[in-house]
Here is the input.
Amino acid sequence: MKRITTATISVILSLTITAQDRTPMDKIWEEIEKITSARQDGKMKVNHGGGQLLYVHNGVVGEVYLCTKDCGGSTSPSFDNMTSEEIEAANERNRKMVFGKIFGAIRQNLDSLMAVSEESYHFESHHHGTDTINYSLCLKNGRDSIARIRANDGTMFYLDALETVFFNYTAGMKPCGKHARGFGTLEYNKRLPLPGGKSYYFEKQPYIDRITPVLKRKGIKEWSFKWAQTDDYDIDAHHSQEFRSATRVQQPKNAGQTVGTMYFIPREKSELAEEIFTTIDSITLRYTEIHPEQMFRYIYNVKEEVMQYAETSNISTLFEGTTGKGHVSTCVLFGITPKGYYVAIADTENNACVPKEWSTLKSFFNGEKKYIRQK
Here is the structure.
């Protein structure tokens, strides 16, 4: 077992983030993407209130090895035609060519960032197949003294720091006792105090007025929709059967509704869909740059995330603006199914649940569904 703790005062990274600027995590995630050939990270810009703008860049890092039947585990049906020797050989290739390279990239980059951090903490434990890796970096504190607190898992949190990086990973043996699996998160945060030190509710109409003309194009169909449930409708009990996702802001209460307009672009008009997605994304990003004082959550790369599910069905939130008290907001979502592309503009109140059949529903109320007319 090894334990490494460092605290260094050094030249601080000078990072003034704009939409085009790179975060310290960009290089790491680009290296991981080259190894896995898939994007696994996400970036957000958020004004939660309190007169601060927050940038978040994070993602999940996993390590899983296949079981073989002779070790007491089970294999996926797709691997039933492989022998135990072939599966173990595949595990070894993944260990060296995928997981080893991913963790090597993370360690190398985080170790270099530790050298320019105001304070950093690194802890590792490897014992009988159980692994724990924690990195906590305070890149920029903004005050003379550094406030910190250590969580039960060993993670060091830097309270009120302006710029931080965290990596938390745990792994253990699968029930077979021979093969390992583990998951962790890699996260970057940057807080920027806003001029005036205040946040305000999002002004919906000027933003919507910029977006709706983009969608008034020939070849784009639209219909109104409403997804709602009352407090006596148990979201958790129906989640696996009825919902694709559920944002729980009132847990354990259930009441909530999402009301808006769905815009549909047929699959054969992919160039138009690409243009629409790109334009709305650009308008949204620009609006948040002009009005950072308004409360919102903007997610980068949603277009790319949605487009990669071209043969299935996916819908993701690009933007959400908090318009009033009581969990009230305006949101924009991008979606895709084998039939085409979708943009939803909606107002939400309290818990926001997306039905599994979101692309074909005119209404969903406590499980009762009304469908749009298909032509």
